[in-house]
Amino acid sequence: MTSNFITFRFDRLKYSDLCTLFGEINKILLRDDVEKKNLTVPFARYSEQMTLLTNLDAKTRSKYLNKQYAVHIKRLDNLVSALLLHLKALGRADFPGYSYDVGEVNKVISKQLINFVHVGVANKKTALNIVLICFDPVNNWLWECAVRIGVSKYIEELRITLEKMRSIEKVEKAAKNGQSTSVEAVKAKAELIKGLRTLLQCIDLTVLNYPDVDYTLLIAMINNEIKEHRTQLRNLQTRRIRKKEKENQPTDQEDVNL
Q1: Which parts of the chain sit beneath pLDDT 70?
Q2: Contact status, residue 20 vs residue 232, Cβ threshold 8 Å
Q3: What residues have CB less than 8 Å from 3, skipping those under 6 apart?
Q4: What confidence score (pLDDT) does residue 257 get?
Q5: What are the residue boundaries of the structural domains of the chain, listed by start?
Q6: Which of 9, 21, 82, 242 is the one with CA 20 to 30 A from 2?
Q7: Which residues, 6+ apart, have CB-to-CB distance to 84 below 8 Å?
Q8: Which pLDDT belongs to residue 258?
């Protein structure tokens, strides 16, 4: 049976483009009188698959969140560096009456944070968690030591910055949990393409079974959508080929060397 529709490899479409095409064809059928076109059943099956489009939604992009997260990490590095310098300065100054406080605070801080700026984020958070537990402001003698020598503000700022990072992590985790897995997306794409091809085949068969009904406009509108996506895909492939050819072209210096 010869098809009335443009031949096209739907599997080459990106998720977003397939969603657009699938949705536009659904709109075309909604605007038409599918009952008079004897397409009620095929259209119902096709429409039911619209729910699969959510599995092809673009993954949440968190460039902004990642940027903010990086800012907080840099803030932690700066705070820890300043805190270590402050404690070092206090040790050298050896103010009367503060030697004990400086020594006790420095024991914990130096042990946990001495290499802070050189370790990964996971190790940073682990070290900070230990420090923040040791310097809990509630009924804690170490915290009182930090207050007396004027370094409690560093520790409190570290606590605040770490909380900001945790808030970002919670947002990203929640967004990720609401997204489909790659396996689900691949499966949904295959099902949608199958449904799309089935619809076109049903229309072709219906055209043969009902020669007295005019399907010209319906077919033309669907073909127009398919053609548009096919053209976009071909243009993209052409740009990729030209870019690759340009990259493979020898430079003027290479020509001289040859």
Answers
A1: 1, 57-65, 174-181, 240, 243-245, 247, 249-258
A2: no
A3: 200, 201, 204
A4: 52
A5: 10-58+181-246, 63-177
A6: 21
A7: 109, 110, 113, 114
A8: 44
